[in-house]
Amino acid sequence: MPDTEFLTDQIDKIEPLRTRLLDWFYRNKRNLPWRGELSPYRIWISEVMLQQTQVVTVIPYYERFLEQFPTLVDLAEAPLDDVLKVWEGLGYYARARNLHNAAGKIIEKWDGQLPDNYNDLLSLPGFGHYTAGAVASIAFGEVVPAVDGNVKRVLARLFAIDSNVKQGIGAVQIQTIATELVDPQEPGDWTETLIEFGALICLPRSPRCPDCPVQDLCEARQRGLEHALPARSGKKSLPHYDVTAAVIHRPEDDRVLIAQRPLDGMLGGLWEFPGGKRQPDESLPDCLRREIREELGLEIEVVEPLVTVKHSYTHFKITLYAYHCRLISGVPQALQVADWRWVTLAELDRYAFPRTDEQIITALHG
Ligand code: ADE
Questions:
Q1: Which end of the chain is more exposed for a tag (fewer CB within 10 A), N or C?
Q2: What is the C-alpha to C-alpha distance for residues 185 and 171, in angstroms, rounded to an integer?
Q3: Residues 152, 36: one domain?
Q4: Measured in angstroms, how far is the CA atom of residue 29 from the centroid of ligand 1?
Q5: Would you please indicate which residues are annotated as catalytic (active-site) residues?
């Protein structure tokens, strides 16, 4: 049993919090394509897309994805490349690989039906506590919480949890509160209520307290701590890397070389202009020649700069230097790439590229 002693003097507010927030949700919820959805498959897709990604960004992807893969069987039977292509631009591509992988497992082990409970969902690729809780509660009505970053913020404020909610005691306290709070009659609506409330009222930087239906029950608001909570974990600045990319031309038939990233790493399975990270004291052209030799066994001439692209990922930032290059010798070999192709510029749009490489393609067309 979790220790609920820290909650003792706030236990009485659980019932009114539930009632008033659910009531607020029923009056104010946005009309989103997955709202009121009954299909567990569709609910699952929406919850995966909504991780780390804004609702407005997700909507067109959600619609295109379900048009292309209307059922779990369609998803399981599709080539991974097709799944990545629909996902192109949405980021965090492990989500797409895991969806595809999990769909296969659900066919094999669960007869094509998403398992209907938190513990079994948790055993599938890509299901963490949040996704398992969200799908179990929304699709199957299981009385379990779904705690993401937004829910942590809301609960940290409502209950004035002042330790770091991302780890240690703070994280345990949040999980305990979230579990106690789930509405036993409407667990799915409750999950969506907390998320919607975090998205519309209890905003990260400027919470809309005057519009909040539970401001009198909010411990942070009562103590004037609504801007101070949740406690910020000292954000470190992101490391920066210089990265190179080669657009290797084959003038005989007007093709360029693209390579597929290894399936198990970052941006796994996406296609790119090959290259890699510059080492200390290495020039950019030296870096590019080395990377192309290591990854594909080719000797190239670095001809001239094409475009420079800056991009931030979750844990680091890069400046990507793309160069026009010419093949000197060799036949491509998949030494450190999953695959490679010589393609025309017109064929590039059949492949899924990371955002950075999309900018290289734009420069090539320009
Ligand atoms: N973010 C995560 N899940 C969501 C949902 N079901 N509706 C809106 N935003 C969400």
A1: N
A2: 26
A3: yes
A4: 11
A5: 47
For 195-242, the pLDDT digits (tens) are 999 999 999 999 999 999 999 999 999 999 999 999 987 667 899 999
Please name the residue whose Cα sits nearest to atom 3 of ligand 1: 47
Position 248 in a domain? yes
> 110 C-alpha vs ligand 1 centroid, how far in Å?
26
Mutate to test the pocket of ligand 1, among 56, 138, 195 (most ligand atoms within 8 A of CB): 195
Q: How far apart are CA 154 and CA 165, in angstroms?
A: 11
170 and 105 fall within a common domain: yes
For 125-134, how does the pLDDT look when each residue is reduced to its tens digit (9 = 90+)? 999 999 999 9
Residues β-bridged to residue 324: 247, 304
Range of the domain at 246: 240-365
Q: What 3-state class would DSSP assign to 222?
A: helix
Return the residue whose CA atom lies nearest to atom 2 of ligand 1: 50
Phi first, then psi, for residue 302 (nearest 5°) are: -90, 110
